[in-house]
Design brief:
alpha+beta
Protein backbone atom coordinates (compact mmCIF):
# COMPACT_ATOMS: atom_id res chain seq x y z
CA UNK A 1 0.00 0.00 0.00
CA UNK A 2 1.32 3.43 -0.97
CA UNK A 3 1.91 6.17 1.58
CA UNK A 4 0.64 8.69 -0.97
CA UNK A 5 -2.86 8.94 -2.43
CA UNK A 6 -1.27 9.94 -5.74
CA UNK A 7 0.44 7.77 -8.36
CA UNK A 8 4.23 7.57 -8.39
CA UNK A 9 5.85 8.69 -11.65
CA UNK A 10 9.35 7.44 -12.48
CA UNK A 11 11.69 10.14 -13.81
CA UNK A 12 15.16 9.58 -15.26
CA UNK A 13 17.58 12.34 -14.30
CA UNK A 14 16.28 15.72 -13.22
CA UNK A 15 12.99 17.28 -14.25
CA UNK A 16 11.41 20.70 -14.02
CA UNK A 17 7.92 21.28 -12.68
CA UNK A 18 6.38 22.19 -16.04
CA UNK A 19 7.80 19.06 -17.67
CA UNK A 20 6.61 16.86 -14.81
CA UNK A 21 3.06 18.22 -15.00
CA UNK A 22 2.91 17.07 -18.64
CA UNK A 23 4.70 13.74 -18.04
CA UNK A 24 2.36 12.83 -15.18
CA UNK A 25 -0.69 13.76 -17.27
CA UNK A 26 -1.76 16.44 -14.81
CA UNK A 27 -2.07 18.97 -17.65
CA UNK A 28 -2.63 18.59 -21.40
CA UNK A 29 0.29 20.67 -22.66
CA UNK A 30 2.90 23.32 -21.86
CA UNK A 31 0.41 26.17 -22.17
CA UNK A 32 -1.88 24.60 -19.58
CA UNK A 33 1.12 23.94 -17.33
CA UNK A 34 2.16 27.60 -17.55
CA UNK A 35 -1.34 28.84 -16.68
CA UNK A 36 -1.72 26.42 -13.76
CA UNK A 37 1.67 27.33 -12.28
CA UNK A 38 1.31 31.09 -12.77
CA UNK A 39 -2.21 31.01 -11.30
CA UNK A 40 -0.90 29.47 -8.08
CA UNK A 41 -2.87 26.27 -8.66
CA UNK A 42 0.19 24.00 -8.27
CA UNK A 43 1.51 22.82 -4.90
CA UNK A 44 4.85 21.09 -4.37
CA UNK A 45 4.97 19.35 -1.00
CA UNK A 46 1.98 21.40 0.13
CA UNK A 47 3.49 24.78 -0.78
CA UNK A 48 2.46 26.93 -3.77
CA UNK A 49 5.10 26.91 -6.53
CA UNK A 50 4.89 29.57 -9.24
CA UNK A 51 8.09 28.72 -11.15
CA UNK A 52 7.65 26.29 -14.04
CA UNK A 53 11.42 25.78 -14.03
CA UNK A 54 11.51 24.66 -10.38
CA UNK A 55 13.61 21.47 -10.24
CA UNK A 56 11.87 18.61 -8.53
CA UNK A 57 13.52 16.19 -6.12
CA UNK A 58 12.90 12.53 -5.36
CA UNK A 59 9.74 12.13 -3.30
CA UNK A 60 8.27 15.54 -4.11
CA UNK A 61 4.48 15.50 -4.13
CA UNK A 62 2.99 17.67 -6.89
CA UNK A 63 -0.72 18.55 -6.73
CA UNK A 64 -2.74 20.63 -9.20
CA UNK A 65 -6.09 22.22 -8.34
CA UNK A 66 -8.07 21.68 -11.54
CA UNK A 67 -11.67 22.73 -12.31
CA UNK A 68 -12.60 19.02 -12.28
CA UNK A 69 -10.94 18.54 -8.89
CA UNK A 70 -7.51 17.94 -7.42
CA UNK A 71 -4.98 15.76 -9.24
CA UNK A 72 -1.48 14.87 -8.17
CA UNK A 73 1.56 12.67 -8.56
CA UNK A 74 4.73 11.78 -6.68
CA UNK A 75 8.20 12.12 -8.24
CA UNK A 76 10.46 9.06 -8.11
CA UNK A 77 13.90 9.68 -9.56
CA UNK A 78 15.42 6.56 -11.07
CA UNK A 79 18.94 5.94 -12.28
CA UNK A 80 19.45 5.72 -15.99
CA UNK A 81 20.79 7.41 -19.04
Amino acid sequence: MSLHPHPVIDVRGEIKLGQFLKLAGLVEDGAEARVAVQSGDVLVNGEPETRRGHRLADGDVVVVDLPAGEAGAVVRLVAGR
